Amino acid sequence: MSSTLVVHHLRVSQSESIVWLCEELGIDYKLVCHDRDQQTLLAPDAYKGLSPLKTAPVIEDVDTYTPNHDHIRLAESQACIEWICRKHGQGRLLNKPWDPNWKEWLFCAYPNILRYLKEIGERPAYQKAFEKGETTLKPMLDANPKSIYNF
Fold it and tell me: Which positions fall inside the GST N-terminal domain (predicted)?
C-alpha cells in the first residue's frame, strides 16, 4: 500500500527533522524537495504557497479519521511530529508525562535554539544580527543545556 503522506522538505530548515522522523519510524512517504533561492537563501514562492505561515516544515496527508477522508496540510514542526507519530507510527516515539524519560523527550522533540547556538553563532549573518540587536552570544554559547533543564 502506498503512503498518503507527503513531506515538503525545504533544504536547510526545520523540515530536516521531519524527514529524519519518517526514516526513524520506517514509514512510507513521498519526499518533495524544495531548494532555497541561491541569492537570497529564501524559500521559493511555490513552497511559501503551501502554508499561510510560509515556513518549514509542511506535510500533506489524507485524514482517514474523517468520513470524507479530507486532504489536510499541516505546518509547524510539533504539529507535523504529532500527526506523523500518531497516524503513521501508531504512537511510536511519543512519550507520556509518566514515562521515565519524559523530560528528556520534551527537550528533544521540541525545537530548541540552545541545541543549535554553536552552529548558529558561527554563521556571519547571525553574528551580525546579534551585534545589531546588541545581544551577546557568548553566555548562551557557554550554557550547558543539561544544567538549564536539570537532567
Answer: 2-92
Domains and CATH numbers, the chain: 6-88 (3.40.30.10), 112-149 (no CATH)
Kindly report, residue by residue over 9-20, the tens digit of the pLDDT.
988 888 888 888
Structural contact between residues 78 and 110, judged by C-beta atoms closer than 8 angstroms: yes
In whole angstroms, what is the distance from residue 143 CA to residue 99 CA?
27
Report field, pTM of the whole predicted structure over 0.70: no
Q: For residues 100 and 18, what is the distance between their CA atoms, to the nearest angstrom?
A: 24
**Distance linking the first and last C-alpha atoms of the chain:** 42
And the C-alpha cell for 35?
531548494
